[in-house]
Backbone:
Protein backbone atom coordinates (compact mmCIF):
# COMPACT_ATOMS: atom_id res chain seq x y z
CA UNK A 1 0.00 0.00 0.00
CA UNK A 2 2.69 2.49 1.07
CA UNK A 3 5.00 1.38 -1.74
CA UNK A 4 2.25 1.66 -4.36
CA UNK A 5 1.19 5.14 -3.16
CA UNK A 6 4.78 6.35 -3.04
CA UNK A 7 5.49 4.94 -6.52
CA UNK A 8 2.37 6.64 -7.94
CA UNK A 9 3.31 9.90 -6.21
CA UNK A 10 6.85 9.79 -7.61
CA UNK A 11 5.50 9.06 -11.07
CA UNK A 12 3.03 11.98 -11.01
CA UNK A 13 5.72 14.24 -9.53
CA UNK A 14 8.08 13.35 -12.37
CA UNK A 15 5.42 13.82 -15.03
CA UNK A 16 4.73 17.25 -13.51
CA UNK A 17 8.42 18.13 -13.79
CA UNK A 18 8.49 17.06 -17.46
CA UNK A 19 5.20 18.80 -18.41
CA UNK A 20 6.18 22.01 -16.61
CA UNK A 21 9.57 22.28 -18.32
CA UNK A 22 11.52 22.07 -15.05
CA UNK A 23 13.30 18.93 -16.23
CA UNK A 24 15.10 21.12 -18.77
CA UNK A 25 18.02 23.12 -17.27
CA UNK A 26 17.81 25.71 -20.08
CA UNK A 27 14.28 26.55 -18.86
CA UNK A 28 15.41 26.80 -15.23
CA UNK A 29 18.34 29.07 -16.13
CA UNK A 30 15.98 31.22 -18.23
CA UNK A 31 14.01 31.83 -15.05
CA UNK A 32 17.06 32.52 -12.89
CA UNK A 33 18.44 35.00 -15.46
CA UNK A 34 16.44 38.07 -14.38
CA UNK A 35 19.02 40.43 -15.85
CA UNK A 36 18.78 38.87 -19.31
CA UNK A 37 15.82 37.60 -21.37
CA UNK A 38 13.67 36.54 -18.43
CA UNK A 39 11.31 33.54 -18.71
CA UNK A 40 8.89 33.72 -15.74
CA UNK A 41 7.41 30.23 -16.42
CA UNK A 42 8.89 28.64 -13.29
CA UNK A 43 6.97 31.03 -11.06
CA UNK A 44 3.83 29.42 -12.50
CA UNK A 45 5.16 25.92 -11.75
CA UNK A 46 5.78 26.95 -8.15
CA UNK A 47 2.46 28.78 -7.95
CA UNK A 48 0.46 25.82 -9.26
CA UNK A 49 2.26 23.36 -7.02
CA UNK A 50 1.90 25.46 -3.85
CA UNK A 51 -1.78 26.15 -4.60
CA UNK A 52 -2.67 22.43 -4.68
CA UNK A 53 -0.29 21.41 -1.89
CA UNK A 54 -1.40 24.17 0.49
CA UNK A 55 -5.07 23.26 -0.03
CA UNK A 56 -4.40 19.53 0.37
CA UNK A 57 -2.15 19.95 3.42
CA UNK A 58 -4.75 22.20 5.10
CA UNK A 59 -7.22 19.30 4.95
CA UNK A 60 -4.63 16.64 5.86
CA UNK A 61 -3.44 18.64 8.89
CA UNK A 62 -6.53 17.46 10.76
CA UNK A 63 -5.83 13.77 10.08
CA UNK A 64 -4.15 11.64 12.72
CA UNK A 65 -2.83 9.04 10.28
CA UNK A 66 -2.43 8.53 6.55
CA UNK A 67 -4.58 6.13 4.51
CA UNK A 68 -1.95 3.40 4.98
CA UNK A 69 -2.11 3.75 8.77
CA UNK A 70 1.34 5.34 8.87
CA UNK A 71 1.28 8.45 11.09
CA UNK A 72 1.63 11.86 9.46
CA UNK A 73 5.31 12.77 9.52
CA UNK A 74 5.01 16.57 9.49
CA UNK A 75 8.39 18.31 9.76
CA UNK A 76 9.01 19.71 13.23
CA UNK A 77 12.17 21.79 12.69
CA UNK A 78 11.61 25.55 12.94
CA UNK A 79 15.12 26.91 13.52
CA UNK A 80 16.58 29.30 10.98
CA UNK A 81 20.27 28.78 11.63
CA UNK A 82 23.66 28.84 9.92
CA UNK A 83 23.25 25.27 8.60
CA UNK A 84 20.01 26.19 6.86
CA UNK A 85 21.40 29.44 5.44
CA UNK A 86 24.79 28.13 4.31
CA UNK A 87 23.30 24.89 2.96
CA UNK A 88 20.61 26.73 0.99
CA UNK A 89 23.12 29.22 -0.41
CA UNK A 90 25.41 26.38 -1.55
CA UNK A 91 22.45 24.55 -3.06
CA UNK A 92 21.26 27.69 -4.89
CA UNK A 93 24.76 28.32 -6.24
CA UNK A 94 24.93 24.78 -7.64
CA UNK A 95 21.39 25.10 -9.01
CA UNK A 96 22.34 28.31 -10.84
CA UNK A 97 25.60 26.81 -12.10
CA UNK A 98 24.05 23.90 -14.04
CA UNK A 99 20.27 24.42 -13.90
CA UNK A 100 19.60 21.10 -12.15
CA UNK A 101 18.00 20.55 -8.75
CA UNK A 102 17.64 17.00 -7.37
CA UNK A 103 14.23 15.95 -8.80
CA UNK A 104 14.68 17.16 -12.39
CA UNK A 105 18.25 15.81 -12.42
CA UNK A 106 17.00 12.31 -11.55
CA UNK A 107 14.30 12.52 -14.24
CA UNK A 108 16.76 13.68 -16.92
CA UNK A 109 19.33 11.08 -15.82
CA UNK A 110 16.71 8.34 -16.08
CA UNK A 111 15.88 9.57 -19.58
CA UNK A 112 19.53 8.94 -20.44
CA UNK A 113 20.83 12.53 -20.62
CA UNK A 114 24.61 12.15 -20.14
CA UNK A 115 25.10 15.54 -18.44
CA UNK A 116 22.36 14.67 -15.93
CA UNK A 117 24.07 11.35 -15.14
CA UNK A 118 27.33 13.20 -14.41
CA UNK A 119 25.49 15.74 -12.25
CA UNK A 120 23.61 13.02 -10.30
CA UNK A 121 26.85 11.11 -9.64
CA UNK A 122 28.45 14.28 -8.24
CA UNK A 123 25.30 15.11 -6.24
CA UNK A 124 25.23 11.66 -4.64
CA UNK A 125 28.95 12.00 -3.87
CA UNK A 126 28.17 15.33 -2.19
CA UNK A 127 25.42 13.73 -0.11
CA UNK A 128 27.83 10.92 0.80
CA UNK A 129 30.43 13.50 1.90
CA UNK A 130 27.74 15.08 4.10
CA UNK A 131 26.86 11.70 5.64
CA UNK A 132 30.50 10.97 6.45
CA UNK A 133 30.91 14.48 7.90
CA UNK A 134 27.80 14.02 10.07
CA UNK A 135 28.96 10.59 11.20
CA UNK A 136 32.27 11.90 12.55
CA UNK A 137 30.74 15.13 13.82
CA UNK A 138 28.13 13.34 15.92
CA UNK A 139 30.57 11.11 17.79
CA UNK B 1 15.34 42.89 -17.60
CA UNK B 2 13.19 42.01 -20.61
CA UNK B 3 10.58 39.30 -20.86
CA UNK B 4 11.39 36.39 -23.15
CA UNK B 5 7.90 35.94 -24.61
CA UNK B 6 9.01 33.21 -27.01
CA UNK B 7 10.18 30.99 -24.15
CA UNK B 8 7.33 31.88 -21.75
CA UNK B 9 4.97 28.89 -21.33
CA UNK B 10 2.51 29.69 -18.53
CA UNK B 11 -0.06 26.98 -19.38
CA UNK B 12 2.18 23.87 -19.31
CA UNK B 13 4.08 25.40 -16.38
CA UNK B 14 0.88 25.73 -14.36
CA UNK B 15 -0.37 22.28 -15.42
CA UNK B 16 2.95 20.71 -14.40
CA UNK B 17 2.84 22.60 -11.12
CA UNK B 18 -0.66 21.26 -10.38
CA UNK B 19 0.62 17.71 -11.00
CA UNK B 20 3.58 18.26 -8.65
CA UNK B 21 1.19 19.54 -6.00
CA UNK B 22 -1.15 16.58 -6.49
CA UNK B 23 1.82 14.22 -6.04
CA UNK B 24 2.86 15.95 -2.80
CA UNK B 25 -0.71 15.70 -1.43
CA UNK B 26 -0.97 12.05 -2.48
CA UNK B 27 2.25 11.12 -0.68
CA UNK B 28 1.16 12.79 2.56
CA UNK B 29 -2.40 11.43 2.36
CA UNK B 30 -1.35 7.89 1.51
CA UNK B 31 2.02 7.45 3.21
CA UNK B 32 2.21 10.33 5.69
CA UNK B 33 5.43 11.64 4.17
CA UNK B 34 6.74 14.94 2.81
CA UNK B 35 7.72 14.85 -0.88
CA UNK B 36 11.27 16.10 -0.43
CA UNK B 37 13.62 14.56 -2.95
CA UNK B 38 16.99 15.47 -1.42
CA UNK B 39 15.73 14.13 1.92
CA UNK B 40 14.71 10.83 0.32
CA UNK B 41 18.13 10.43 -1.31
CA UNK B 42 19.85 11.38 1.95
CA UNK B 43 17.69 8.87 3.82
CA UNK B 44 19.19 6.14 1.63
CA UNK B 45 22.82 7.20 2.20
CA UNK B 46 23.09 5.03 4.29
CA UNK B 47 19.62 3.40 4.17
CA UNK B 48 17.49 4.14 7.23
CA UNK B 49 14.73 1.93 8.59
CA UNK B 50 11.34 2.25 6.83
CA UNK B 51 12.91 3.30 3.55
CA UNK B 52 10.50 1.40 1.31
CA UNK B 53 8.49 4.56 0.59
CA UNK B 54 11.68 6.44 -0.37
CA UNK B 55 12.77 3.74 -2.81
CA UNK B 56 9.26 3.42 -4.27
CA UNK B 57 8.89 7.20 -4.78
CA UNK B 58 12.30 7.46 -6.46
CA UNK B 59 11.45 4.50 -8.72
CA UNK B 60 8.24 6.28 -9.73
CA UNK B 61 10.15 9.50 -10.35
CA UNK B 62 12.69 7.71 -12.55
CA UNK B 63 9.90 5.85 -14.39
CA UNK B 64 8.24 9.16 -15.33
CA UNK B 65 10.19 9.87 -18.54
CA UNK B 66 9.54 6.31 -19.71
CA UNK B 67 5.81 6.55 -19.02
CA UNK B 68 5.70 10.00 -20.65
CA UNK B 69 7.31 8.52 -23.77
CA UNK B 70 4.39 6.10 -24.17
CA UNK B 71 2.18 9.07 -25.07
CA UNK B 72 4.51 11.64 -26.61
CA UNK B 73 8.12 12.38 -27.42
CA UNK B 74 10.09 13.75 -24.47
CA UNK B 75 10.69 17.51 -24.59
CA UNK B 76 14.25 18.49 -25.46
CA UNK B 77 16.72 18.81 -22.58
CA UNK B 78 19.41 21.44 -23.16
CA UNK B 79 22.46 21.48 -20.88
CA UNK B 80 25.04 24.20 -21.42
CA UNK B 81 27.33 23.19 -18.57
CA UNK B 82 30.44 21.14 -19.35
CA UNK B 83 31.68 18.26 -17.21
CA UNK B 84 33.77 20.26 -14.68
CA UNK B 85 30.88 22.66 -14.07
CA UNK B 86 28.41 19.75 -13.73
CA UNK B 87 30.64 18.11 -11.10
CA UNK B 88 31.05 21.30 -9.05
CA UNK B 89 27.30 22.01 -9.35
CA UNK B 90 26.40 18.45 -8.31
CA UNK B 91 28.69 18.57 -5.27
CA UNK B 92 27.23 21.95 -4.19
CA UNK B 93 23.66 20.70 -4.62
CA UNK B 94 24.37 17.41 -2.82
CA UNK B 95 26.15 18.93 0.18
CA UNK B 96 23.98 22.07 0.30
CA UNK B 97 20.59 20.33 0.25
CA UNK B 98 21.64 17.92 3.01
CA UNK B 99 22.90 20.72 5.26
CA UNK B 100 19.71 22.68 4.60
CA UNK B 101 17.56 19.52 5.04
CA UNK B 102 15.69 20.22 1.83
CA UNK B 103 15.64 21.46 -1.74
CA UNK B 104 13.13 22.89 -4.21
CA UNK B 105 10.58 20.17 -3.38
CA UNK B 106 10.86 19.81 0.41
CA UNK B 107 11.41 23.48 1.30
CA UNK B 108 10.10 25.08 -1.89
CA UNK B 109 6.85 23.24 -2.61
CA UNK B 110 5.99 21.44 0.65
CA UNK B 111 7.52 23.92 3.12
CA UNK B 112 5.95 27.01 1.58
CA UNK B 113 2.61 25.16 1.45
CA UNK B 114 2.82 24.46 5.18
CA UNK B 115 3.56 28.11 5.84
CA UNK B 116 6.88 27.17 7.45
CA UNK B 117 9.03 30.24 8.18
CA UNK B 118 12.13 28.01 8.09
CA UNK B 119 11.27 26.85 4.56
CA UNK B 120 10.50 30.42 3.47
CA UNK B 121 14.00 31.37 4.63
CA UNK B 122 15.59 28.38 2.87
CA UNK B 123 13.71 29.16 -0.36
CA UNK B 124 14.73 32.84 -0.20
CA UNK B 125 18.37 31.81 0.30
CA UNK B 126 18.56 29.27 -2.53
CA UNK B 127 16.63 31.48 -4.95
CA UNK B 128 18.91 34.44 -4.16
CA UNK B 129 22.01 32.29 -4.66
CA UNK B 130 20.57 30.91 -7.92
CA UNK B 131 19.86 34.40 -9.29
CA UNK B 132 23.30 35.60 -8.20
CA UNK B 133 25.11 32.62 -9.72
CA UNK B 134 23.36 32.97 -13.10
CA UNK B 135 24.08 36.71 -13.06
CA UNK B 136 27.74 36.04 -12.31
CA UNK B 137 28.10 33.33 -14.98
CA UNK B 138 26.13 35.03 -17.77
CA UNK B 139 26.68 38.73 -17.20
CA UNK B 140 29.96 39.05 -15.32
CA UNK B 141 32.00 36.12 -16.65
CA UNK B 142 30.26 36.18 -20.03
CA UNK B 143 29.01 32.65 -20.41
Residues:
Amino acid sequence: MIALTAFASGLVFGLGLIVSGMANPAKVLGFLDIAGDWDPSLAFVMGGAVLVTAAGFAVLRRRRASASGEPMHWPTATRIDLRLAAGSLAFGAGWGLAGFCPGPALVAASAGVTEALIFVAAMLAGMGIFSVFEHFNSR
Amino acid sequence: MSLDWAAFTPAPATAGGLLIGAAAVLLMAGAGRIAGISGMLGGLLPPQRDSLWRVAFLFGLCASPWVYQLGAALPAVTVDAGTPRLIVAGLLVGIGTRFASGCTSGHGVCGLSRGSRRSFAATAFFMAAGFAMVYAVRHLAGG
Q: What stands out?
A: DSSP finds six helices and one strand in chain B. Residues 10-140 of chain B form one domain.
